């Protein structure tokens, strides 16, 4: 049975949005994905487990929280929307990762 999962995700730029979409599309059982950058929400429609979706997003370093899980609404007639302003190409979080910022203490394993 298909369900609609709405998640709160911190999406600041196009790079963040693309990374979240790529992480979630790896899961099976997803019919439709949509992102709202202004509200910071990710909507997934399909049979995928909401906990698995959050786990995939957290693996890429983003914070995600489940807002709601329920049946999808029936499709409404399409209305033309005004174009949304584009997100900036990159945010401060992405730039820190790009120049070598390591958020965890990573040490190589040594065999005694």
Describe this structure in words.
The radius of gyration is 17 Å and the shape is globular. It contains three helices and four strands. Strands 2-3-1-4 form a four-stranded antiparallel beta sheet, covered by helices on one side. It has helices spanning 14-25, 50-59, 92-98; strands at 3-9, 30-36, 41-46, 64-70. The model has no long low-confidence stretch (mean pLDDT 81). A hairpin with a 4-residue loop joins strand 2 (30-36) and strand 3 (41-46).
Write a short abstract of this structure.
Helices cover 26% and strands 24% of the residues. The protein is of the alpha+beta class. The mean pLDDT is 81.
Blueprint (SSEs and pairs):
Layout: E1 3-9, H1 14-25, E2 30-36, E3 41-46, H2 50-59, E4 64-70, H3 92-98
Antiparallel strand pairs: 1-3, 1-4, 2-3
What labels describe this entry?
single chain, 112 residues, alpha+beta, four-stranded antiparallel sheet, 3 helices, 24% strand, metal-binding
Strand tally: 4
Number of helices: 3
What does the overall shape look like? globular
Helices and strands, in order, run as EHEEHEH
Spatial ordering of strands, largest sheet? 2-3-1-4
Q: What are the low-pLDDT stretches, counting only 5+ consecutive residues below 50? A: none
Instruction: Please report which band the strand proportion falls in: under 5%, 5-15%, 15-25%, 25-35%, 35-45% or over 45%.
Output: 15-25%
How can the largest sheet be summarized?
Answer: 4 strands, antiparallel
Domain HMA: 2-65
Organism: Liquidambar formosana
Family: Belongs to the HIPP family.
Keywords: Lipoprotein, Metal-binding, Methylation, Prenylation
């Amino acid at each position: 049975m298909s369900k609609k999962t709405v998640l709160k995700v911190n999406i600041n730029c196009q790079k963040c949005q693309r990374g979240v979409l790529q992480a979630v599309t790896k899961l099976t059982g997803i019919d439709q994905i949509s992102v709202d950058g202004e509200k910071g929400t990710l909507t997934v429609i399909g049979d995928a487990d909401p906990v698995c979706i959050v786990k995939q997003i957290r693996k890429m370093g983003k914070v995600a929280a489940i807002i709601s899980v329920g049946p999808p609404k029936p499709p409404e007639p399409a209305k033309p929307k005004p174009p949304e302003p584009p997100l900036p190409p990159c945010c401060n979080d992405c730039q820190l990762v790009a120049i070598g910022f390591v958020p965890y203490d990573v040490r190589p394993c040594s065999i005694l």
